[in-house]
């Protein structure tokens, strides 16, 4: 790490703390050459490989924007969407991969969205999983009902 003041090529870490969301580390550093202190923030980079093969940085905002469309007219707040995006990012980072396929992100969104709102889940799944006809919707609804019944019976 170069000192931003004297450009010395080394620095000493004085203090390290995780940020509020736990996804970054804030380090307080001191230059051994000039003695001045400065802070750095370190995050693990996460990139998304699109279907076209182009890689771009991961963005929570894109998750929120995509899910927001599925949630139009539903009782879902911006705070709910932000929490969903954070949980999805945490789950993706927990895999340890630095590059993810766009498809993997969609798969990670589906269970989180289902917990938030089942109608929004069906809307998102219909686009993401390319539903072609009513039979695809019926199959998805049947699966949701079966999983709900299974959950209810295991809770008893």
Automatic annotation (TrEMBL):
What is the purpose of this protein?
Negatively regulates transcription of bacterial ribonucleotide reductase nrd genes and operons by binding to NrdR-boxes.
Q: What is this protein called?
A: Transcriptional repressor NrdR
Its family remark reads: Belongs to the NrdR family.
Q: Where does the ATP-cone domain lie?
A: 46-136
- Which species expresses this protein natively? Microcella putealis
Q: Which InterPro entries match?
A: ATP-cone_dom, NrdR-like_N, RNR_NrdR-like
How is the cofactor bound, as the UniProt entry phrases it?
Answer: Binds 1 zinc ion.
| Gene this protein is translated from | nrdR
This protein's UniProt keywords: ATP-binding, DNA-binding, Metal-binding, Nucleotide-binding, Repressor, Transcription, Transcription regulation, Zinc, Zinc-finger
Q: Which cofactor does it need?
A: Zn(2+)
**What GO molecular function annotation could you give as one example from this UniProt entry?**
zinc ion binding
* Annotated zinc fingers (unnamed), start-end: 3-34
One annotated GO biological process: negative regulation of DNA-templated transcription
């Amino acid at each position: 790490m170069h000192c931003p003041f004297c450009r010395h090529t080394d620095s000493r870490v004085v203090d390290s703390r995780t940020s509020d969301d736990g996804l970054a580390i804030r380090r307080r550093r001191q230059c051994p050459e000039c003695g001045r202190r400065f802070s750095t923030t370190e995050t693990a980079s996460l990139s998304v490989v699109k279907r076209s093969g182009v890689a771009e940085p991961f963005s929570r905002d894109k998750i929120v924007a995509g899910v927001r469309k599925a949630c139009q007219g539903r009782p879902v707040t911006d705070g709910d969407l932000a929490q969903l995006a954070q949980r999805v990012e945490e789950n993706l980072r927990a895999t340890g991969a630095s590059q993810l396929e766009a498809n993997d992100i969609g798969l990670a969104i589906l269970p989180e969205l289902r917990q938030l709102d089942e109608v929004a889940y069906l809307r998102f799944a219909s686009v993401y999983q390319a539903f072609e006809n009513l039979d695809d919707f019926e199959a998805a609804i049947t699966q949701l009902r079966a999983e709900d019944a299974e959950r209810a019976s295991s809770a008893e």
